[in-house]
Amino acid sequence: MLEKVIEQYLVKRVKAQGGMAYKFASVAHRGVADRVVCLPNQTWFVELKTQGGRLSELQKVFADDMLRLGQNYVVLWTKEDVDQWLLTTTK
Question: For residue 39, with 0-12 CB atoms within 10 Å meaning exposed, 13-18 middle and 19 or more buried, which class applies?
Fold first, then answer.
């Protein structure tokens, strides 16, 4: 499944939960997450990958930085991952 398809699914599911999934691109910093997802009372940095994909070294640095700073960060690989993540974050 293409990453684009998973990303479109994420946007649709987040909107259905009353949230927003902003596309994020940083000119000055490579490796930032694909989406900034705002759900009621929480914000997440979400990286999307396909099955078999891998994080680049810069994406790993970004993930480590976000976790070190106490931010919410997740990598989602499938539509099922999107659904499971939403179930655990919107309880």
Answer: middle
Rounded to the nearest 5°, which phi and psi values hold at 52?
90, -10
Q: Is 36 helix (H, G, I), strand (E, B) or coil?
A: strand
Distance separating the N- and C-terminal Cα atoms of the chain = 28
pLDDT digits (tens, 9 = 90+) for 37-61: 999 999 999 999 998 899 999 999 9
User: Rounded to the nearest 5 degrees, what angle is found at the Cα of 53, between the Cα atoms of 82 and 67?
Assistant: 60
> pTM of the full predicted structure?
0.93
Cα dihedral across residues 72, 54, 56, 5: positive or negative: negative
**How far is residue 46's CA from residue 63's CA, in Å, rounded to a whole number?**
10
Mean pLDDT of the chain: 94
E-assigned strand segments in the chain: 20-23, 35-39, 42-48, 72-76
